[in-house]
Amino acid sequence: MTVPRFSDHAANERTFLAWVRTAIAVMAFGFLVERFDIFLKIAGKSLGKKVAMSGQVTGSLVGLALIIAGALMVAAAMLRFTRNRTAISAEETHNAEGDKLDLALAGLIVVLGFGLAVYLGLTMLKGSGHG
């Protein structure tokens, strides 16, 4: 038994799995950012120093936003996978649909990345006594 357009279906599945892997990485990074304060406390104790936790709320919000972005990426991947599977299986040809959701998620990740960079930059400035 052969599957019609098997290579197209396989490529669709590989793309879906790549999106899922990326989403898992984004969510894991969000968890790491959200829990970074625990690492700082442990590192401070082992070094015998008190660590200031001034950006704890900001770090938690950025981490939570990354976790939500990762979950949205999985949802978008599922929608895209099923839409592409239906289009591949259809006998007639279709025009490619818009990628607005993909672009919105990518934009969200870019905004979160810049926000995280600003947060870390400000935290470093405060830690060095310049803020």
Tell me what you see in this structure.
This protein has 131 residues and is an all-alpha fold. It has one domain (6-127). Helices cover 79% and strands 0% of the residues. It contains 4 helices and no strands. The chain has helices at 6-34, 36-47, 56-89, 100-127. α1 packs antiparallel against α3 (56-89). The chain is elongated. It starts with 5 loop residues before the first helix and ends with a helix.
Beta content comes to under 5%
- SSE order: HHHH
Share of helical residues: over 70%
What is the terminal-to-terminal distance?
69 Å
Transmembrane segments: 16-36, 57-81, 101-122
Domain DUF202: 8-86
Subcellular location: Cell membrane
Organism: Acidiphilium iwatense
Topology at a glance:
Blueprint: H1 6-34, H2 36-47, H3 56-89, H4 100-127
Helix pairs in contact: 1-3, 3-4
In short:
The chain is mainly α. 79% of the residues lie in helices and 0% in strands. InterPro entries: DUF202, IM_YidH-like.
Provide tags for this entry.
79% helix, mainly alpha, 131 residues
